[in-house]
Amino acid sequence: MKRNVELVVISDVHLGTYGCKAKELLRYLNSIQPKILILNGDIIDIWQFKKSYFPKPHLKVIKKILSFATKSTDVYYITGNHDEMFRKFTDFELGKLKVCNKICLEIDQKKAWIFHGDVFDASVQHSKWIAKLGGKGYDLLIVINNVVNWFLEKMGKEKYSFSKKIKNNVKKAVKYIGDFELTASELAIDNHYDYVVCGHIHQPQIREVTNKKGSCTYLNSGDWIENLSALEYDHKEWKIFYYDDHKDLLQDEDVEEFQDINNSELMKIVTNFSQ
């Protein structure tokens, strides 16, 4: 039984990389029926795109998204830094799917400002090659982490996250996350938004931010590399959905809902968009 949800936000899926948890994301997407689905950047990782590595589950995620867009769901693809090639297709529409750089929505008489967030990242804006190198290093760290966690599971021990450990213990990383959240929130307050919704930093969050000029709710959808998280808005309430908290309740559905395009044709489309 699918859950009806008014609004769902996912980001930082990084399809086409070894760290992407496409199977888990597909199970989640198959469990919901959203009125609005917002893909808030870094869905397909063009920076690390390789035709030699784009497994079937990754293609199925794209098919599922297209399936939403051909039915009753409004789908917004907001571009991020890892899929910045799509920015040349801004305002492109296919059925109910629209490519954009940011969106502003009114939700129950409140204004929401939604964008990926890489605009705040100086390393991306001014030293792109450094950011790309960092992305490759992060991807390698995730691959190594996956191998370690496989052995931990075999030994009956809990999984361990290298990058979460780094984020939580390195002062610069903690400061960067705090600065990111504060900058986004202060800009939202200055522009009279009630909500500001970002991705980019792989840190799921919902928190109120208040300054002398007012207040807003800062939200971040996290990622589908480590946190496996999404933002959901329903019945006038925001929640963070964590896959690991619900995975036993999600059923496997291996149904091809978008038969018009087969995997090889879809792969050609992805390749053409990445060039």
From TrEMBL:
GO terms for biological process: lipid A biosynthetic process. It is an enzyme of class 3 (hydrolase). SUPFAM superfamilies: Metallo-dependent phosphatases. Residues 7-204 form the Calcineurin-like phosphoesterase domain. It comes from the Bacteria. The keyword Cell membrane applies. One of its GO terms (molecular function) is metal ion binding. Pfam families: Metallophos. Its EC number is 3.6.1.54. Keywords: Cell inner membrane, Cell membrane, Hydrolase, Manganese, Membrane, Metal-binding. GO terms for cellular component: membrane. PANTHER family: BLL8164 PROTEIN, UDP-2,3-DIACYLGLUCOSAMINE HYDROLASE-RELATED. This is UDP-2,3-diacylglucosamine hydrolase. The gene is lpxH_1.
